[in-house]
Amino acid sequence: xxxxxxxxxxxxxxxxxxxxxxxxxxxxxxxxxxxxxxxxxxxxxxxxxxxxxxxxxxxxxxxxxxxxxxxxxxxxxxxxxxxxxxxxxxxxxxxxxxxxxxxxxxxxxxxxxxxxxxxxxxxxxxxxxxxxxxxxxxxxxxxxxxxxxxxxxxxxxxxxxxxxxxxxxxxxxxxxxxxxxxxxxxxxxxxxxxxxxxxxxxxxxxxxxxxxxxxxxxxxxxxxxxxxxxxxxxxxxxxxxxxxxxxxxxxxxxxxxxxxxxxxxxxxxxxxxxxxxxxxxxxxxxxxxxxxxxxxxxxxxxxxxxxxxxxxxxxxxxxxxxxxxxxxxxxxxxxxxxxxxxxxxxxxxxxxxxxxxxxxxxxxxxxxxxxxxxxxxxxxxxxxxxxxxxxxxxxxxxxxxxxxxxxxxxxxxxxxxxxxxxxxxxxxxxxxxxxxxxxxxxxxxxxxxxxxxxxxxxxxxxxxxxxxxxxxxxxxxxxxxxxxxxxxxxxxxxxxxxxxxxxxxxxxxxxxxxxxxxxxxxxxxxxxxxxxxxxxxxxxxxxxxxxxxxxxxxxxxxxxxxxxxxxxxxxxxxxxxxxxxxxxxxxxxxxxxxxxxxxxxxxxxxxxxxxxxxxxxxxxxxxxxxxxxxxxxxxxxxxxxxxxxxxxxxxxxxxxxxxxxxxxxxxxxxxxxxxxxxxxxxxxxxxxxxxxxxxxxxxxxxxxxxxxxxxxxxxxxxxxxxxxxxxxxxxxxxxxxxxxxxxxxxxxxxxxxxxxxxxxxxxxxxxxxxxxxxxxxxxxxxxxxxxxxxxxxxxxxxxxxxxxxxxxxxxxxxxxxxxxxxxxxxxxxxxx
Length: 832
Description:
By secondary structure, this protein is an all-beta fold. It has two helices and 65 strands.
């Protein structure tokens, strides 16, 4: 049965700030909501059909449950209201609940569980014989291996029901046996192996873990043949009937006697529980990076996943959620992680300052440390080496005399191998010559120096005597080129050398962005320009040119370039280093060939601000007054504004943490390009004391010290109206003044958009009113005149000498809810 209920429009609740609330013209403007639920017998959870379910407030509607104990109402709700609902059935005690109904939100009510009114106790009612076994509970949900310091025991509670689904009670107790199904065979034990049902048909067994992790199945059984035999031999008591036996769920299983006879067994489904591994063990703890060599020496922000696999003293994977802590002497690493269901805890290592410098291995090598604790609270630890490789370099050793056997080295600026997927190509330019050896190479993931990783060779063969061998390196670390060979006296190989300088292009920039000085981040960037001739080829050593460097548009603050002038190398390349100042912004770098008009296009790089500073850290709420003291789920944006010590906006991605003592707030956010980090504060429990919630924002400055700031948000509550005097007494041609207060239950202002209207009514409409009689509140937390305290006066303007009744009504319409207050009295006329 479905009922459509139309409720009057009670109030307008503003759910989104900054938007107006326009009430629908009628209930047809809303989609109906559906209210569903069920009614069951409290004793056995059986569905109750034809139970009466009734809405008794704020209107009266009734329906009945179907054969499955289910019911539903379809309601037209045009405002938020509280429904009071009861359920009852003959022979049972009634039950009542309340629920909040909101337009266009379906509701699923908690199940009504009705208690029977029969005087005879269920324990004294005879039930049928066992028909099925079901699991009631397992506590805890999982256990750990023995000797690991965790929970090693789990309790299983089974319930035996008769063929009608009723629990076996004290009049028909049965013996239940327990056994293990599939299990890891590490010494798992059940205790007891047999038990008898209690007055609710329940019986329990305890499982103790062994030394091996895995899944254990527990099975409960009732031997029906043994039960029938024992009952038939009793002098008194209940004997299972043939009908009850046939209705039971009976399974065939081999008897315990070992002969060919068959015993009838009622068996539960196998119930599984996981035995997790124990606490970490030093012998089963190892850390390793996803990439041993990654190009993070000069490039900030690259990531490398670091993983630890953790086992217990038996070699099992430890319990999920085991905490592992990490640290490093190079770059930045996440401080901690927890193991997953495979015993692996992973974090991100990010390239940046400090640049690693290992005491034995040298620059570029960082040590990653990981530790946890074992079952004796001893430290369990391991470490791994990661290479932060840098910019590529090439060294060629030319042979002496007539030898054409060359050796060459490819490495980073610190002499270490380049990152994996780096390609090395060796090509020869000349007539009647060929090159062989290490000419096409792709590097793997290694930090070991030597043959095949940093050291290579090639041979030149053929009749030609003039040739040039070119070596090109390209990969995650960047590009590099070098040449060697034999040329004629003019440096030519089958043709002229390069032309003179004609244009400039940017070859590379070492950083995408840098930060202001003293910010503990990268403050320098290297720009490599290449000078080209008219044909677009790099100028050679014979056409080498001096290149001057200058700044274009820049924010100032002490930015510098070094050197001011440099000469091109054999590949036509020249480098300049930019160092940041104290002001964030965009910097342009320009290269110009000395003594000419040949210039590069301005090359731009961003200088981000430094780390947060207490004097430049603030937080504010989008809304000062949130009507959330009694209306949960309303929210407002909380924004932190973060600058560095120079007053610049901090680097995008700076983390800010938030807490509150009222409702709840998202825990963290990162700053955007405007230095703003925004989270959402939601009104819910706990309600703040006095209605005022404090929201705190935290971050860390350049000294790793915590800096904090806070703001206050008012959670305003339901409206309250007070007026003084509370009676009306106006004399002939006289007047009367009134003070009134509109506030919430804590005396605080109501939310923005609250409208307060004062209406004065008399039969002749001859009373005038002046003062604060039509007010719309703004967003305020401050109580007092104009926010909570108001005044108005009435005066007699008529000539009628007869007494008249007077009524004053104050109407409040608010996001906090609506309220009306009325006072009455009279205007007293004297005889002229």
